[in-house]
Amino acid sequence: MRKSRIQARRERMYFVWGSLLFVIVLALTVAAFWYQHKLTPAVDPVSLCPASGPTGHVILLVDKTDPLNFTQREAFHALLEEIITRKVATGELLSVFALGDDYTATAKPLIELCNPGDGSDQSELTANLKRLKRQFEDKFRAPMQALTDELESQKPGRASPVLEMIQLISINGFRKHDVHGPRRLILVSDMLHNTLGLTMYRGDYDYQAYLDSAYGRKTTADLAGVEVELHYVLHTPALQTRRHLKFWEDHFSHIGARIVAVRPLEG
User: Fold this and answer.
1) What's this model's pTM, rounded to 2 decimal places?
2) Whether the Cβ atoms of residue 128 and residue 36 lie closer than 8 Å to each other
């Protein structure tokens, strides 16, 4: 009898210790899984946008109707890196458009991705920093940097339909996504619009005359609430005067936007 009681006690101990070991292994497995995914925001695997939608929208429009010289290319590459790493906040959508001489061929964005965050604003105690960094580098930064060749031209275009392209980024960019958050347009261009309807190469900067024309009514847009950052490519400084900039200030104001920064692109 005593031997049976001792054996039963041992079996209970084995059961208790076995159960405890199982709980520990299960806890470690759950902890490891949690560590791999802890506080990493749930994002769409394709767009990298938060499950609740983008928190803001940045559109980059690059004018490729004229080639950049060596210094301008270097400055543009530095600007692109700045946009990717500092100008698009975590959760914001970045849409990239190219302006070509045929705006119907460049009406859609080349790429659209949200910044998933690189973990620099997180703590190792609450986030998997390596996983966040790898996701940022491989799925956001690398695809954006790969666009460089598509955003540069080797020969001058026959036209420069800046007004039409602004219309299209309104339609296929801001209006399409209707993001409820900050909306910004970063423009890299000489802003010398050149089409049959209006050419600025004759120094035609009378905004009211443009506005009153059939062409002006045809090329209006809606950029309500959008902040505009203009990186001026100085291809023809003699034409890119204060009057020229005033035309664009008036235009963006008329369509609901506001120029918040004007910065010449070096070169």
Assistant:
1) 0.84
2) yes
